[in-house]
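Tip: read the tokens left to right.
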């Protein structure tokens, strides 16, 4: 599944949804079926998230005006409007991808990548759920998963970027995978299993990843389909959250297995019994997964190992496997560790490596014997050699009749090594090669059909490439046209799915952007949604313009009241402007200025009253100069302060009366 703006990803998180489809993050309800939802009414956590987004938007405005910052600002604005969760002012949680034992995984947009104009700004964010988060060692567990994932850097193990916390939210970021989870893939083939070659390829890739971890003395301890993701470049193992260390490592290392997070249908008997971790635990889980891939069902009816042992359950043989392959798988499924294959490499190689048939080995024996020199050997053994040639040729014909074309080809080649002039063997070789080529072509065509049915584009492209390699260019061209049609149909279906989701959320901008991406899409439903979105968007723009006019009017009135020192009037208009939500930063700044001016006025008024009290005392003592000076000082703090004006007038009048009583002779 291709991921990017407007396209829903398949990710490591296409796992089983949580039972109640809800997870709480900082007091917000998160719906696993759609995206991060806002609560019906605001909570302190919701207000905090809104403040965080406001700060991001303000910082972007102040710091830079480049395209990257402008794009990040737009994303922050939309996130603010939709009340989406944002972690550490960086990761905007856009959709819930799945859940596991430790927590919930989200598709998130990394605003730092947006600022850097990264073409793929998406990551996966795993957030610990409340039950796991409240464990005293939860933060240690997530840190260990991140650090071990760096240690376990491997093409078949998911890449973990970092871990962090935002308040009481503990989370980890990792690569956002493209493909399909193994769990839904197994469900698609329930009761019948995958095509054998594809199933064994997946088992081999998982086995290689586990072998790499075991070399580092790390046991996964929670291997299950929900922790495996199938990408175009191979299967990837994820969630080493409760990975445990073998006894070869330091005993003081924290054991995340003590948290009790295991999956009963895939956990070994020894894990239930609390025994030390062992590679054979992962062998058991991989054997269960291999059986599900090949047979389409759980070998023990999804019952825990202890119950399966008590009920004496035995897995039914898988007919598509050779005797050696079934023997390997059966040993991997043993409920008791002592009877089970101990080494993961031995298990996956025994199940996936091709072994030559007994008939082919016999033909090879004849060939090896002939390499010493055909003429000398014929001279020494005479009729015995002719008998061996006849026997080998007869075996080859029998193999051809029975459809074992590899055996027939090996036999023909062995005969020709002994007798290069054997025309019948040459004809047998040609017939076997033709049949093998036809068989391979049919298998590739069948693989292509299966890939299309499973919506696996990478698999289908691989089948087309191999068809061209074997010379079926015309047939490959026909199938390639089908693939193009399929891709077009898939793209249209994805766009329609996104458009419906955007419409359900009344995200009209999203629908308009989709119409710009796919202007040729003539689906009537899509065209109707686009028309609806354009009309709604126009109405929203008109309403926004009206709110902006009203906002500016309220701001102007508040400023006028502030200039007149009518702080109650100013505060009333400023709060009304803030409630419109047009420019919250400007409105909040105005409210703060009003509050500051009011507080400053109150402080100056108190100072004026204190000075005036001294002046009134001077007036009572007929110290009019002191009274006038005090009233002047009070007026410095509060101009037009009536009591100060009155004291100054009275003092000046008293001075004038005294002057009039003085007679100069």
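Filled-in amino acids:
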């Amino acid at each position: 599944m291709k991921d990017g703006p407007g396209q829903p990803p398949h990710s490591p998180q296409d796992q089983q949804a949580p039972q109640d489809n809800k997870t709480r993050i900082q007091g917000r309800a998160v719906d696993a079926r759609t995206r991060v939802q806002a609560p019906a009414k605001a909570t302190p956590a919701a207000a905090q998230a809104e403040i965080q987004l406001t700060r991001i938007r303000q910082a972007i405005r102040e710091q830079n005006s480049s395209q990257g910052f402008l794009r990040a600002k737009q994303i922050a604005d939309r996130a603010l409007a939709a009340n989406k969760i944002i972690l550490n002012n960086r990761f905007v949680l856009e959709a819930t991808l799945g859940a596991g034992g430790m927590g919930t995984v989200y598709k998130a947009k990394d605003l730092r990548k947006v600022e850097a104009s990264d073409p793929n700004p998406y990551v996966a964010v795993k957030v610990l759920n409340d039950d796991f988060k409240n464990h005293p060692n939860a933060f240690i567990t997530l840190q260990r998963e991140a650090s071990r994932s760096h240690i376990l850097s491997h093409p078949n193990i998911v890449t973990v970027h970092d871990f962090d916390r935002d308040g009481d939210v503990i989370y980890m970021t990792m690569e956002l995978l493209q493909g399909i989870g193994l769990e839904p893939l197994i469900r698609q083939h329930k009761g019948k299993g995958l095509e054998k070659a594809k199933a064994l390829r997946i088992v081999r890739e998982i086995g290689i990843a586990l072998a790499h971890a075991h070399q580092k003395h790390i046991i996964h301890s929670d291997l299950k389909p929900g922790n495996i993701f199938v990408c175009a470049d191979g299967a990837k193992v994820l969630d080493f959250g409760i990975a445990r260390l073998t006894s070869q490592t330091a005993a003081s290392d924290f054991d995340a297995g003590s948290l009790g997070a295991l999956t009963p249908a895939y956990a070994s008997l020894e894990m239930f019994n609390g025994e030390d971790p062992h590679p054979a635990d992962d062998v058991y889980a991989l054997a269960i997964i291999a059986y599900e891939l090949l047979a389409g069902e759980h070998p023990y009816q999804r019952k825990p190992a202890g119950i399966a042992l008590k009920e004496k359950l035995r897995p039914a043989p898988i007919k598509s496997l050779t005797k050696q392959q079934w023997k390997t798988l059966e040993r991997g499924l043993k409920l008791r560790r002592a009877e089970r294959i101990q080494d993961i490499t031995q298990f996956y190689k025994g199940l996936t490596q091709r072994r030559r048939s007994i008939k082919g080995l016999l033909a090879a024996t004849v060939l090896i014997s002939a390499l010493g020199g055909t003429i000398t050997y014929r001279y020494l053994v005479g009729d015995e050699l002719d008998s061996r040639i006849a026997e080998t040729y007869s075996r080859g014909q029998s193999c051809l009749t029975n459809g074992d074309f590899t055996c027939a080809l090996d036999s023909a080649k062995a005969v020709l090594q002994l007798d290069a002039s054997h025309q019948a063997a040459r004809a047998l070789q040609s017939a076997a090669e033709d049949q093998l080529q036809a068989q391979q072509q049919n298998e590739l065509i069948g693989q292509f059909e299966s890939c299309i049915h499973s919506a696996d584009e990478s698999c289908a492209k691989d089948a087309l490439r191999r068809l061209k390699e074997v010379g079926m260019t015309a047939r490959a061209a026909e199938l390639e046209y089908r693939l193009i049609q399929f891709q077009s149909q898939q793209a249209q279906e994805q766009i329609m799915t996104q458009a419906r989701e955007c419409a359900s959320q009344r995200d009209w901008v999203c629908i308009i952007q989709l119409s710009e991406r796919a202007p040729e899409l003539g689906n009537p439903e899509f065209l109707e949604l686009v028309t609806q979105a354009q009309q709604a968007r126009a109405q929203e723009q008109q309403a926004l313009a009206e709110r902006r006019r009203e906002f500016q009017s309220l701001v102007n009135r508040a400023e006028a009241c502030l200039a007149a020192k009518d702080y109650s009037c100013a505060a009333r208009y400023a709060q009304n402007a803030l409630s419109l939500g047009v420019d919250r930063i400007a409105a909040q700044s105005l409210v703060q200025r009003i509050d500051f001016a009011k507080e400053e006025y109150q402080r100056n008024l108190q100072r004026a009253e204190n000075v005036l009290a001294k002046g009134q005392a001077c007036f009572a003592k007929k110290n009019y100069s002191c009274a006038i000076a005090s009233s002047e000082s009070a007026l410095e703090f509060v101009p037009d302060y009536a009591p100060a004006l009155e004291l100054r007038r009275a003092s000046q009048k008293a001075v004038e009366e005294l002057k009039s009583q003085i007679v100069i002779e």
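Confidence is low (pLDDT under 50) at residues 1-46, 59-65, 247-260, 356-382. Residues 606-661 form one domain.
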